[in-house]
Specification:
The complex is a heterodimer of chains A (294) and B (487).
Chain A lengths: L1 E11 L31 E2 L22 E9 L2 E2 L7 E4 L3 E3 L12 E3 L1 E7 L2 E8 L15 H7 L3 E3 L3 H6 L7 H21 L4 H15 L4 E3 L4 E6 L3 H4 L4 E8 L3 E4 L9 E11 L4 E10 L3
Helix pairs in contact in A: 3-4
Chain B lengths: L7 H28 L10 H34 L32 H10 L22 H9 L6 H10 L1 H4 L16 H19 L1 H4 L36 H16 L12 H15 L13 E2 L13 E2 L3 H25 L6 H27 L28 H23 L20 H22 L11
Parallel strand pairs in B: 1-2
Helix pairs in contact in B: 1-2, 1-7, 2-9, 2-10, 3-10, 4-10, 5-9, 7-9, 11-12, 11-13, 12-14, 13-14
The chains are: A alpha+beta (294), B mainly alpha (487).
């Protein structure tokens, strides 16, 4: 058995509800393709050099996420496999989707397509598809049954996750801590804006980010009859401390195998994604892939 | 409507009017938001596109909150035994359609004149100079300097004062700052309409007793938050900047009207919230239009009131732009049909016919996310990029056309058949528009990669796939429409 443990920040530049799924720039949600940035591609990017990644600046006093998901620990039949440590992990062309409730009705988004690649340098070590429908791998996503979709949905869901907070550099999982972190980011972006004198495009993008980060300070809940209950836009903090855990037995075609894996059995892939940063359009992933050897 | 609301029938009339007004405002705001330029190929430098996109974000937020107000008005209506309604006149309508309040119903692109009109709709009473009742002129624009001062000098005070003013009734309200004087006409502003509704609830609670006034079934209302059956699901309405409460007694009725007035006109809100009120949002956009010279160039060249046909109830006729481009008219008809089906789904949700949580969830699953965000919004955006006419310039837009009153209270079996037919018709409609070829390749920004269809066609095809999925789910089991997992 080969066991690969991987983690790191990834990027996903996508529109958020209530924008439609195919929105390319962002309007009514809280994520935006800003001035000077390319359109959203809505794909999960684990590596900074993948086409579609756009890493933003965070200013002089804020440390933002840096994209890069790698194997951190590896074992082969229980023994350390240092040759695999540092290998890059990718979910090729994957998207986290629900199609505005058309495909998934309960907020537990599916990942599709799912094709997992592990590579080192320019060499692909192993790469395998997971099929929604093993009986018909070419079946369009729109035709997936409930059972097929459930298999691809998260099995674990944690709010105010201490694990997600720690992984993303927060001392604890309190809303207050997260808001302080985002307000410090905002201060740093304001400093960056002051230094950005002759670049109207960058300035316009920074102005939007600063305004969006300020949302967390706008506490007011009209319906409760009291102020200070929660911010105007609750997503500003809820998703950031949320963790979703998947458990998928990868079942499809093996495209590459330089590690001597067993192609006849599924390869359990377990991971969580969380700590979403709507300003950086990044989140954290931590997981493992267990691959039976031939 | 009498000067003071003294009977249940008058209160129902006032709430029907409020619902109609909120619905009309929402459609106007959405039309304007979707007319704004979005892409670099539309002739603005990127930093200006960014500014314009921020306006679109703000106006869609305001429009969502008008949906919230509509939801609150329907709950108020339902609570006292009224019949919920989504009926409203087609646009445009003459200036005095709603009497002295002079709310001009028109679908116009988001230029400076439109924003001034919106700003006037949402103005607190002490900034909107009252019009002489006999005047036939459009209302004067708000003084932008005064508006800016209102929005920045932190005039808001405390919630307790808002509550006290609303509870005091019209007599005392007229003496309070920011509240206009009654002119012997039903209402001079939307704010005043809600104040009269509040007073009506108080009066009738005293006259009849709360138990006798609030006779509607609470389960016929839609609301979000912890006490809602939908709490914690995608259908929890208290998301995305919205808060819709249920109305069961005088206290909740007054809370609902207070929320509407605070959120719109910003009457007596705390300083930190003031910039988020509708009036201050429109004041900000108007200011930025002037500062950056975007009063005309921020929006696409969308023609006013684009309609697929000359609807019989519009007035005056010469303000209507009948779409003559055949391909665009197909898309516009699809928008109108999708809009009408969404309203039917919503109406059924509020009706006495829906009894179980599963049925309510199923209708919400279809009406809210898929219809509002996956179909209506993209079609509306697409329309503002399409030519309206076959022989002259100008872009189309979503006409929000209604072919008649939106009325639906048949039994469950009949409803199943009706919805099935309407959704089947929509599936066929989306299939038809993508089978018309790709007449949009030569429009600005539509050619991307060699050999690929236009962006517009690709988007329409995505909508086709989405509607086919919705149709298939409905056909499989209408109670499980759109649902693929157990909640």
């Amino acid at each position: 058995m080969l066991r690969l443990e991987f983690e790191g920040f990834f990027q996903m530049r996508m529109a958020t509800d209530p924008d439609p799924t195919d929105e390319k720039r962002g309007v009514s949600g809280y994520t935006f393709a800003l001035a000077g940035e390319p359109d959203f591609d809505a794909k999960i990017h684990f590596q900074p050099d993948e086409p579609g990644v756009y890493e933003r600046a965070f200013g002089p006093t804020s440390k933002g996420p840096k994209v890069g998901v790698k194997v951190r620990r590896a074992t082969r039949n229980g023994k350390a496999a240092p040759d695999l440590v540092g290998a890059r992990v990718a979910f090729l062309d994957a998207q986290i989707i629900e199609h505005n409730g058309l495909l998934v009705r309960n907020d537990l988004f599916i990942i599709d397509p799912l094709r997992v690649r592990v590579s080192k340098g320019k060499s692909v070590l192993v790469e395998r598809d997971d099929w929604l429908n093993p009986a018909d791998p070419s079946m369009p996503q729109w035709e997936a049954t409930s059972e097929m979709i459930v298999r691809r949905q998260p099995k674990r869901f944690v709010t105010n996750s201490a694990e997600a907070a720690a992984a993303t550099g927060l001392p604890d999982a309190a809303n207050k801590t997260l808001i302080e972190n985002r307000l410090k980011r905002r201060e740093s972006l304001e400093a960056l804006l002051k230094k950005t004198k002759n670049d109207p495009v960058t300035r316009a993008a920074l102005e939007t980010r600063i305004e969006q980060l300020a949302i967390v300070t706008k506490w007011w809940d009209l319906s409760e009859g009291s102020w200070g209950e929660r911010p105007i836009d609750r997503r500003a903090y809820t998703l950031a401390l949320q963790l979703d855990g998947w458990d998928i037995a990868v079942n499809g075609h093996v495209h590459k195998d330089k590690l001597g894996c067993d192609h006849t059995r599924p390869w359990p892939l377990r991971f969580w994604m969380g700590g979403w940063d709507g300003d950086a359009l990044c989140a954290y992933i931590r997981g493992s892939w267990e691959i039976p050897l031939a | 409507m009498a000067d003071e609301i003294k009977s249940r029938a008058e209160l129902i009339d006032a709430l029907r009017l409020a619902s109609e007004l909120e619905h009309g405002l929402m459609a106007q705001y959405l039309f304007a938001a979707y007319s704004l330029k979005r892409y670099d190929y539309e002739g603005l430098p990127p930093e200006q596109v960014e500014r314009v996109r921020r306006w679109a974000s703000l106006i869609t937020l305001v429009a969502r909150q008008e949906m919230e107000h509509l939801g609150l008005a329907l709950n108020l209506l339902s609570a006292i035994g009224g019949t919920p309604s989504f009926s409203r006149p087609n646009m445009p309508q003459r200036l005095d359609y709603y009497g002295a309040v002079k709310i001009k119903l028109a679908l116009t692109r988001c230029d400076e004149e439109t924003i001034k009109r919106f700003q006037r709709f949402e103005a607190p009473d002490d900034l909107a100079e009252p019009e002489p009742p006999e005047s036939k002129d459009p209302p004067k624009p708000i003084d932008q300097k005064k508006a800016h001062a209102w929005c920045t000098n932190l005039m808001g005070v405390g919630r307790a004062e808002v509550a006290a003013a609303l509870e005091a009734g019209p007599g005392l309200l007229t003496a309070a700052p920011h509240i206009d004087i009654l002119y012997g006409i039903p209402y001079q502003s939307v704010q005043e309409l809600y104040q009269k509704i509040t007073s009506g609830f108080e009066h009738l609670s005293n006259e009849l007793g709360e138990r006798n006034l609030f006779i509607g079934k609470p389960e016929n209302q839609l609301f979000g938050g912890p006490s809602s059956p939908q709490h914690g699901t995608m259908n929890d309405l208290n998301q995305y900047g919205l808060d819709i409460i249920g109305v069961t007694d005088l206290a909740s009725a007054k809370q609902a009207t207070r929320m509407i007035v605070e959120q719109g006109e910003g009457v007596r809100v705390p300083p930190s919230y003031l910039p988020n009120t509708h009036f201050c949002i429109f004041t900000r956009i108007r200011g930025e239009m002037e500062e950056y010279g975007l009063g005309e160039s921020g929006a696409r060249p969308v023609v006013p009131n684009p309609m697929t046909v000359l609807q019989p109830d519009v007035s005056p006729d010469d303000e209507v732009s009948v779409i003559t481009n055949a391909h665009t008219r197909e898309v516009a008809q699809l928008f109108n049909e999708s809009y009408e089906v969404m309203l039917l789904l919503l109406l059924y949700l509020y009706s006495d016919q829906v009894k179980t949580k599963a049925q309510t969830d199923a209708l919400m699953d279809a009406a809210f996310f898929p219809f509002m965000t996956m179909f209506l919004r993209p079609l509306a955006e697409i329309l503002t990029e399409l030519p309206a006419f076959k022989d002259k310039p100008g872009n189309a837009g979503p006409g929000f056309e209604l072919s008649g009153d939106v009325i639906l209270f048949p039994d469950l079996d009949e409803t199943w058949t009706l919805f099935q037919e309407r959704i089947d018709s929509l599936v066929a409609g989306y299939q038809r528009v993508v089978s018309m070829g790709d007449p949009w390749l030569d429009l600005p920004g539509q050619r991307t990669e060699q050999g690929k269809p236009s962006q517009i066609w690709q988007r329409l095809d995505y909508l086709r796939q989405s509607m086919e999925r919705l149709g298939a789910d409905w056909q499989a089991n209408w109670l499980n429409i759109g649902r693929t997992t157990e909640v």
